[in-house]
Amino acid sequence: MTTRAAAFACALSLAGCSGVQSALDPAGGDALRIYWLTLIMTLGGTLIFLLVTGVLLYAIFAPPERRAWLGGRRTIVVGGLAFPIVVLSGLLPYGLIVMRDTDVPMPGALQVEVIGEQYWWRVKYPEEGGKSEFSTANELIVPVGSPVTVTVTSADVIHSFWIPNLGGKIDMIPGRINRLSFTAERPGIYRGVCAEFCGDQHARMAFDVVALERTAFEAWRAAQEKPAREPDLPFLSRGRALFRAAGCGSCHVVRGTEADGAFGPDLTHVGSRRTIGAGQFPNNIGTLAGWIANTQHIKPGVRMPSYGSFTGEELRSLAAYLESLK
User: Fold this and answer.
1) 260 pairs with which residues across the strands?
2) Are 127 and 170 in contact, with CB atoms under 8 Å apart?
3) What are the CA-CA distances from residue 32 to residues 22, 44, 112, 189, 319 (Å)?
4) pLDDT at 11 over 80
5) Is this structure's pTM higher than 0.70?
6) Most CB atoms closer than 10 Å: which of 8, 35, 60, 77?
7) Which of 191, 139, 147 is nearest to 165 (CA)?
8) By CB neighbour count within 10 A (0-12 exposed, 13-18 middle, 19+ buried), where does 40 fall?
9) pLDDT at 209
10) Chain-wide mean pLDDT for the chain?
């Protein structure tokens, strides 16, 4: 599906239904096919509903001598047998053809691995073409116009990976590997969500998909492959010391330091991400400090404890250090 086709679909998207999380605002070929399938099925169902309702009202209110034909053999054969066969014989193959052409793996696709966890997303870009492997969290950065294959699984319960603007959804099942393929046809920021109830914070488990032009994507990937930057201010050095002293490195990785925990999100470049808390808050020093101090109050049930023992100054320096990791 070409960029022109995706733009055409955007122009046809239903008024008021466009946005960063809308299956009615397709930004890729697969989403466009699903969009048209939805329109055709909805229109067909509406017309059939109106037809059946009209016949029902006629049967109720028309004089007996005028509605006698409704019980005739021809009406039963045409309306009760031939009509459903013809309609379903047309819609079923159409739906099967659409689904056949959707989520098709493409050669040379960018490979990304995503693991669903309660209640966030672990994202890994494997080594390929001489480029190093690295991990991030709650963000999927992809190049515009290039196919992407996302390999998904779960670390705990069943989740479901869905980016409404870009394609269909797929289950993330512990112990099982599933794959989803799509191509973003226009630059932008799109919202992905978990579409399978996975616990108390299921509704607050989102992620960003950022579609960049190829040069911007390559620059982003090159930056992500580097280790964490060294603090260049005493205030930031104080924050790094607090990060170490509090044992944050036992759960989180910060490449280039001794922090090598594998339980929580990789924080090597956490300051470059748009949001924290799996899409819940904008990423800045204030929200980072609030998250650290009151995690369980902000998002009860997540596996990170609240660190309310830090003083205000300590929280600011720790949050400033994390925000500097770009």
Assistant:
1) 253
2) no
3) 12, 18, 22, 17, 41
4) no
5) yes
6) 35
7) 191
8) middle
9) 97
10) 90
